[in-house]
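Inputs:
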Amino acid sequence: MSTPRLLLLSSSAVHGHGYLEYAATDINIFLNKNRVSTVLFIPYASADYDSYLKKVEAVFSKWGYQVEGIHKHNPVEAVANAEAIFIGGGNTFLLLKTLYDKNLIKPIRQRILNDGVPYIGSSAGTNVAAPTIHNTNDMPIVYPPSFKALNLIPFNINPHYLDPDNNSTHKGETREERILQYHGLPSEYDVFNVLGLREGCTLFIDGQVGILKGINNARLFIRGKPPKEIAVGTDLSHLLTDTLRTEKKLTP
Amino acid sequence: MSTPRLLLLSSSAVHGHGYLEYAATDINIFLNKNRVSTVLFIPYASADYDSYLKKVEAVFSKWGYQVEGIHKHNPVEAVANAEAIFIGGGNTFLLLKTLYDKNLIKPIRQRILNDGVPYIGSSAGTNVAAPTIHNTNDMPIVYPPSFKALNLIPFNINPHYLDPDNNSTHKGETREERILQYHGLPSEYDVFNVLGLREGCTLFIDGQVGILKGINNARLFIRGKPPKEIAVGTDLSHLLTDTLRTEKKLTP
Ligand SMILES: [Ca+2]
Ligand SMILES: [Ca+2]
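Outputs:
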C-alpha cells in the first residue's frame, strides 16, 4: 500500500455541534497540510445533490476552500482532476450503488492509493472507505452490485456506533449484538475486524500511521476477542497491517 | 393470487412476554384451523441451527405441535412435504442468502400461494414474506444474490418498528427517516409501500382478507402520503390489492 491520506468521520452531525463543526480543526489541518484549495464533493448518498452541495459549500467556503459537486461534471474526469475528495453521509447502499453505476470505484481508489489524494469521509462516506459495507447501519433501500467498497483500509467501520440502552424495552439487536452476529458467521464466510466509531470519533490515517482523533472513544471488535474501548489519541497503526485482513471467501 | 394464509409477527420477543408468547393464541388458532400437526421450522436467519430448533421446539411442543428442523432433511423435499412453515428471526440477509443458496425461494412461494400451506414468520421471517427486504433493520453481514424475497404480499414490512426517541442525542436516522429516504429515492427506482410493525404487532392474512392483530399499533407508509397509525383490529385488506404494487424498475 502506498500513502493513503484519510480523515474518516463517524458522522457530520454530533450533538451540540453544527454540521462538520466538531472536526473543523482536523479537517482544516488535513487540507492545509496537503495544500488543497478545491475539494471534490460526492453527494451520492443523498437523493438531492444540489441542496447537499449547498450545505457542504457553506461550511467549506467559510474555511476558505472551494467545493466542486461531482454531479456538475463528468464524474470520472472530476475524480481524475481532484485535489481532494469528500464523500458525505446519507444512505450507504445508495452511495455504493451510484459509485458502481458511474464506474468510480477503481478511479477513486487509484487516486487515493497511488496519487495520495486526500480523502475525507463522513458516515456513509466512511463506510465506503472500508473493504466492505457489511457493517453499515443503513436500510438497504437499493441493491448495489456488490458490498465490496473502496478498500482503502484493511478493516470495516461501523459509524454512529451506539452503546446498548439499558432502559430500553426494545427487542431489536443492539449494535454490539449485530457486529458479533457478523463475527459469528459460519466459517465459510471470512469477515473483517470492525472499528465502531461513536459520533464524534474521527479516524486519521497518513500512510502507515493511524490515530483516533475527535471527541469520543471508539470500540474495536477483533473477531474472537472481547470488544475493546479505544481512547481519543490512541495509535491504531497496528490495525493497518495487512495481516488483519482476511478475505478468502468474501461474498461479492 | 390464490389463498395465502400468513401470520406475520413483528418479533418473537416482546417486552414482558416469553418467546412467541404474545402471539400464542393467534398462532394456535391459525395452526388448529388449518389442521396442522407438524411445523417445518427454517432457522437460516441464525448461525446455530440446532439450538434455535430446540428453542422453537420447546414452545411449539408445549402447544401440542411437532417441529421439524429443515436443516435435518433435504430442504427442497422438506418444503414439498410441509404442512406448515415457520421462519424465525435473526439476520435477514443471512436468511435470504441461504434461501437462495438452497434454491428454496420458488418452492416455498409455490407451496404457500398454490397449495395454501400456512406460513408463520417472525422478524426476519416476516421481512422475507414481503416483495423485497429493502426495509429490514438488520446489518448487511452477507451479500444475497438479490433483495427480492418470497413476495407473498404486495408491500414491504419494517419489523421492530420504533418511534423516534425525543430524548436521544444520537444523530443516526430515525426509523421514519429511513423509510422516507426509501420513498424519496429518485424516480428511476420503484418502491413499495411499507407497513411498520411495532413489536407486539401481528399481520394476519387469509386470502383477500388482512387484519392487524397483536397488542400494539402499526404505522403505515404509503409513498407520497403522511404516515398513518393503524390500530389493532384494523381491516387491512385494501393493502392486498395489486394496484398498490409498483415494481417497474426494481433493482434485483
Ligand atoms: Ca446513514
Ligand atoms: Ca434481526
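Remarks. Chain A touches chain B at residues 11, 13-16, 47, 90-91, 93-94, 97, 133-143, 146-147, 160, 162, 169-173, 178-179, 181-182, 184-186, 189, 191, 199, 251-252 (CB under 8 Å). The CA atoms of residues 60 and 66 of chain A lie 7 Å apart.
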